[in-house]
Amino acid sequence: SQELEQSPQSLIVQEGKNLTINCTSSKTLYGLYWYKQKYGEGLIFLMMLQKGGEEKSHEKITAKLDEKKQQSSLHITASQPSHAGIYLCGADVTGNQFYFGTGTSLTVIP
Amino acid sequence: GAGVSQTPSNKVTEKGKYVELRCDPISGHTALYWYRQSLGQGPEFLIYFQGTGAADDSGLPNDRFFAVRPEGSVSTLKIQRTERGDSAVYLCASSSRASGGSEQFFGPGTRLTVL
Q1: Chain A residues with CB-CB distance to B44 below 8 A
Q2: Chain B residues with CB inside 8 Å of A2's CB?
Q3: Burial of residue A105 (number of CB atoms within 10 Å: 0-12, 13-18, 19+)
Q4: Alpha-carbon distance B110 to A101, whole Å?
């Protein structure tokens, strides 16, 4: 079973468009992580959020953790083909186990 | 090494055979995780080591799966009597401390195919 729900499951956007990916948990999160994965490769760490209301940015990617620490969003501004891949949210829910969402597949059309 | 490495990168085996998958974490990282990722799914937690001991193995699907980390660095995931449903990419990750504040660094994975 998945502790984290991601939406949408897949996204196709034109280059230059903005997009948002959501990650929702039914439990309070100790920490919320965003990773990116390309086919056949391992996960690449993007950002970590721990405090309710926290927001972090890296280049054109911004992630937020809501006040109740149960939902996070990842926003990409002016998308580029290099942003294509699978975006995964992950969270430490129990203190030992680490759960991942089902992933969002992003395609950026040049 | 600079990052987490996993060997082999690909493993094809026949149903019923035994396989071992190896993970070399980043030097000095005390926490090590194993995940299994099926096509179109996010990684599924299998087991978490803190040092040499398995702090949480509740994600192992059944007793055919076993993992060790005898010296607190390299870890081996062992699968006995493999089944076709075991086919997946097995990912290993390490971090400098227990989850809850430290990012995990992932290896490239081992793609296991059981025929």
Answers
A1: 100
A2: 42
A3: middle
A4: 20
- For A10-65, write each residue's pLDDT tens digit: 999 999 999 999 999 888 777 889 999 987 778 999 999 988 889 999 889 999 99
Residue in A35, A40, A98 closest to B45 by CB: A98
The continuous run of DSSP H or E covering B33 comes out as strand B31-37
From B37, B55, B38, B36, select the one nearest B46 (Cα to Cα): B36
Angle ∠(A59,A62,A63) on CA atoms, nearest 5 = 140
What average pLDDT does range A61-87 have in this prediction? Answer: 93
Query: Does any CB of chain A come closer than 8 Å to the CB of residue B5?
Result: no
Interface with A, mutate which of B99, B104, B112 (most A CBs under 10 A): B99
End-to-end CA distance of chain A: 36
The vertex-B97 CA angle with A2 and A53, nearest 5°, equals 60
